[in-house]
Design a protein that fits this description.
- This protein has 284 residues and is an alpha/beta fold.
- The chain has 2 domains: 107 residues, Rossmann fold (3-Layer(aba) Sandwich); 171 residues, Nucleoside phosphorylase domain (Rossmann fold).
- Helix content is 26%, strand content 29%.
- A 5-stranded mixed β-barrel has the order 7-13-10-8-14. The protein has a two-stranded antiparallel ribbon with strand order 5-6.
- Helix 2 packs parallel to helix 6.
- The longest helix is centred in the first third of the chain and has 16 residues.
């Protein structure tokens, strides 16, 4: 069945609407970063860059390193942008853009998010690298999709709603175990909360009062058996949920720049991020 021109919007050159990419412009392994300025910080280590595209906050570089073809893309911040990224990147490999029909044989991509994050536990040191085993979505993106969750994920979701007093049940979803073992080898293994904002949703207050003033404390203390929340940021849950729905392998690795329990921030955040970039590129 053909997908309508208002559901799958293409540019005049046949590229997908927001990313401005054609199928040949990307590799099967995609590194993503939130900050457009961080794309070059990854691709500077490529042996060569064969393709570049700048469109909105979505900047794409594709090249090779050690003979392996890799794409790095920026997505901007928030799960709303991740939804655009994932639907359009999937369309490039699993929809025939000329006939507008889904391909019979589906391709599985490897997507590796390199991001920054704040720790929720006192013993997680600044400068650490943390790989997200599970993600907890405090955003509402999955309200609009039919995300399957297993019994343990449903249990955690219900208990989180009760513990935090939030008026909704967060969604909980696991990342790729294969990528966790390869890309995340030797890193702190954690469970990441994805928030729909940087300030109040992460317990920060400047001039506005917080509706949930104990949120930080609640997240710090929350646990079910050996499941503890370790850090928060703004994208991982969207990655893991859409990866599950679309059939792609996804992992999120985090440079810990802040510890929200000790109220300390890294003195050299660029160095921490660069170290994580090099580690990921060595393991791909």
């Amino acid at each position: 069945m053909k997908i309508s021109p208002t559901d799958l919007i293409l540019n005049s050159d046949g590229s997908v609407y927001h990313l401005n990419l054609l199928p040949e412009n990307i590799s099967n392994t995609i590194i993503t970063v939130g900050d457009p300025g961080r794309v070059h910080k990854v691709s500077q280590y490529f042996d060569d860059v064969e393709f570049e595209m700048n469109k909105r906050e979505f900047i794409t570089h594709t090249g090779t390193i050690g003979g392996k073809r890799i794409t790095v893309m920026s997505t901007g911040m928030g799960t709303d942008n991740i939804e655009i990224f994932f639907n359009e990147i999937d369309a490039l490999v699993n929809i025939d853009l000329k006939t507008r029909e889904p391909r019979t044989k589906k391709k599985k991509l490897k997507v590796i998010r390199i991001g920054t994050s704040g720790a929720l536990q006192e013993d997680i040191k600044l400068g650490s690298h943390l790989v997200s085993d599970n993600a907890v979505g405090f955003d509402n993106l999955m309200t609009f999709y039919n995300l399957p969750m297993n019994a343990q994920e449903v249990k955690l979701s219900k208990k989180l709603k009760t513990a935090t007093g939030l008026p909704f049940a967060p969604y909980v979803v696991k990342g790729s175990q294969e990528l966790l073992e390869t890309i995340g080898k030797g890193m702190i293994v954690g469970n990441t909360v994805t928030c729909p904002g940087f300030y109040a949703p992460q317990g920060r207050s400047l001039r506005l009062s917080l509706k949930f003033p104990k949120l930080l404390e609640d997240l710090n203390y929350f646990h079910v058996d050996d499941f503890w929340l370790t850090n928060f940021e703004m994208e991982t849950a969207g990655y893991y949920a859409l990866g599950r729905l679309l059939g792609h392998d996804v992992i999120s690795v985090n440079a810990i720049l802040a510890n929200r329990i000790t109220n300390k921030f890294s003195k050299d955040p660029d160095k921490v991020v660069d170290s994580l970039i090099k580690t990921v590129l060595e393991r791909i």
